[in-house]
Amino acid sequence: MPELAHFVCGRSMPSAGAHAPIFNPATVNVVGSAPIALEREVDAAVAAAKVALPSWSGLGLQQRVNLLFDLRQSVQDARDELVRTIIAETGKTLSDATAEVTRAVEAIGQAVTTTSHYATPFTRGVSSGVNTYEVRYPVGVVAAISPFNFPLLIPLVQSAMAIACGNTIVAKPSERNPTTLLRVAELFSRAGLPDGVFNVILGDRSAVERLLAHPDVAAVTFVGSTAVARQIRMRGVLNNKRVQAFGGGKNHMVVMPDADIDFAADAAVSAAYGAAGQRCMAVSVVVAVGSIADSLVEAIRTRAAALRTGNVNEPSAQLGPVITEQSLRRIIGYIDNAAAEGARVLLDGRMHAAGDAGWYLGPTLIDHVKPGMALHRDEIFGPVLSIVRVPSYEQAVAVISAHELGNGAAIFTRDGSVANRFTDDASAGQIGINVPIPAPVYFHGFAGWKDSAFTESKLHGRGTIDFLTRTKTVSARWLEPADSSVELHFPTNR
Known about the structure:
Elements: E1 6-8, E2 11-13, E3 19-24, E4 29-35, H1 39-58, H2 61-77, H3 79-90, H4 94-111, H5 114-117, E5 122-127, E6 130-138, E7 141-145, H6 153-164, E8 168-172, H7 179-190, E9 198-200, H8 205-213, E10 217-223, H9 226-238, E11 242-246, E12 251-255, H10 261-273, E13 283-289, H11 293-305, H12 325-340, E14 344-347, H13 350-353, E15 364-367, H14 374-377, E16 384-390, H15 393-402, E17 405-406, E18 408-412, H16 416-425, E19 430-433, E20 449-450, E21 453-454, H17 463-468, E22 469-477
Parallel strand pairs: 7-8, 7-10, 8-9, 10-11, 12-13, 12-18, 13-16, 15-16, 18-19
Antiparallel strand pairs: 1-2, 3-4, 5-6, 6-22, 11-21, 14-15, 17-20
Helix pairs in contact: 1-8, 2-4, 3-4, 4-6, 10-11
C-alpha cells in the first residue's frame, strides 16, 4: 500500500506528520495512506508557489498557453491510468470515471482559449491627448480546495485557467482520494511546467485553515459543502483574500403534464443515480405537476429498480458505492426517517446495502415528500430521489424558490412559453429545459444562487478571468513641456 507524499516544487515531499488511510469504497480495502500536512509543510508549498510566481507570470500569455497544450496532452495520454485510479479511490463506475477524465481534458482545453478573453479595453483620446487603458496582472498564489466526488475534474477546472492567467497554485484535494491529482502534478512537471507553479498539499481541515490564514495566499477557490463554503468565504474575506466558495445543491426537476413520460423518467433516473447521487448538480427532487404524477413515478420506479450494481471496473456496472461508511449511515438515517415524516418509500436501497462488501446503497425512491421534511431540506448526496407532488406550475416554482439551495433547476415540457417562464421564475444559477443536469460547457459561466455559492464570480467561463487577475487602469498623456500649466481644480475631461 503506497504511503503518499505532498508534491511541492516539482518533486515529492514526504511528510513528517500523521497519515490517514485511503479506502476503496467498493471493497472497503485500504489502498494507501495520505499525510495530514503539518503547518510547516503547507508553508513550504506556498513558499514554492511564491518563488515561482515572478518568472511564470513574466512569461508571455501565449507562451503559457502553448505549454497548456502539452499539459492537456499529458492528461490525455494517461487516460487509462487516471480512470483506474479514480475507480479505486472513489468507487465510480468505469463509464463515469472515463467521462470525468474526458471532461477534465476539455477543461484544460478551455484554458487554452484564455488568449481570446484576456484582452482589456483601450480607449484613445478620452480627453485632449489622453489615452486610457487597462492592464491585467495575475492575482498571485491561488489555493484550490476541492472535494472527493470529482478528484480530477474539479481541481483542473479550478487550476487550469489560473495557470494560464499567470498565477501559481497550491491545490488541496480531498484526503479521501488524492492520488489522481498527485499523478497529474507529476505529469505536468514532466510535460515542462516549471517547478513551483502547481503544488499539491495533502491534509485535512487544518491544512485548509492554514491556507486561509497564510499572508502569501492571494485567492482561494473552494468547492464542497454549503456549511464549509460559507465559513471559507467569511474567513477568506476577513483575511483580505479573493474567495469563490461553491457549496451544495438541492436540484429540482419539474415535470409538467404535457411532458413525454418516458423521456422525463429516463432523465430523472440518469441524473439522480449517476455517481450514486454524489454530484452537486444531481437531481434529487422530481416535482410532478398535476395528473402526470402517478404514471411518472411508476416509470421512474421501474427504471431505477433495474439499475445494475456490481464490479465498478466492468462496463455493465451502473451504480457504485458512496464514498465512506459514515456517508452510508448518514443517508440510511434519512431513509429511516422518511416514513416517520409521512413519506412513502417505493424503492428501498437499504436492503441492497446489507448484502455487499462495499459501501453500497441501492437506488432509493421516496414518494409524497413535502417541503420542510429533512429529506427535502437537506442535501442527501446519495442515490435517493424524492418525489414532490404539486397541482400547478406556480406551486412547483414556489417549491424551488423556497429552498435555501439553488445550484440548478430543470423543467420538462413541450410548451415553449412555459419553458421561457421557468427560465425567468426558477431561483437557480443553472437552468435546464428538457436537460436534467444543466452543467454548462466551460466557455459559459457556472455559479449557483442562494446558499449554493458564496462568491461574485463564476467557476468557469469568461468571468473567471476577472477573479484570477487584477487590473490597473492607466491614463497616459504625452505632451510637449510648453503645453503644461498648474491647474488646481479637480481634473475634467477636456
